[in-house]
Amino acid sequence: MISLIVNGKSHSIGAHPMERLLDVLREELNLTGTKEGCGEGECGACSVLINDELVNSCLVPVGQLNGARICTVEGLAQRGELHPMQKAFAEAGAAQCGICTPGMLMASIYLLNKTPNPSLEQIKTGLAGNLCRCTGYQRIIEAVQLAAAQGHP
Questions:
Q1: Which of 6, 62, 117, 152 is at 20 to 30 A from 110, Cα to Cα?
Q2: What pTM was computed for the model?
Q3: DSSP of 62-73, one letter per residue?
Q4: Helix, strand, coil proportions of the chain in percent (round to 5)?
């Protein structure tokens, strides 16, 4: 058994140690907000926070995560209230088809946790591991700037 803390809740997982974290989240824990885009760690759609570090969940065998703290997009809202970054994305119109949005949210939160008042270049660098085919990135950048201006990671 592999013990994980996912979105603040303890889980014991009987998955094969080489099973991808992405598959465990989606298939065993029914946390389908984390998306599979490429399956190769290139697009960032499956990004989650593992022990407060941004990670592509399609690349991580769950067997390496015993005792880890994992935050997915489902863990952002608290007590029915959207996370400030989710609110900023909505306000800026930063989400379109939704495939990249969970990973973009996680990357944006990670960025603001590390750099609370990032420059435009730092935002572009912080989001560089996440691909979007719909928005052209401008609204996503604006959402990050909005959240930063409001003092929220």
A1: 62
A2: 0.95
A3: GGGGTTEEEE-G
A4: 40, 15, 45
Residue pLDDT, tens place only, 86-101: 999 999 999 888 899 9
List of the chain residues with pLDDT < 70:
153
Torsion of CA 108, 80, 45, 141, to 10 degrees: -30
One-letter amino acid at 149 equals: A
Residues 6+ apart with CB under 8 A from 14: 1, 2
3-state SS assignment for residue 50 = strand
Q: Report how far residue 9's alpha carbon sits from residue 75's, in angstroms, rounded to the nearest whole number.
A: 10
Total residue length of the chain: 153
The dihedral sign for the CA sequence 85, 86, 89, 90: negative
Cβ(126)–Cβ(107) under 8 Å?
A: yes
Query: Among residues 126, 105, 96, 103, which one has the least CA distance to residue 43?
Result: 103
Sorted by sequence, the CB contacts under 8 Å of residue 128 that are 6+ apart come out as none
41 near 21, Cβ under 8 Å? Answer: no
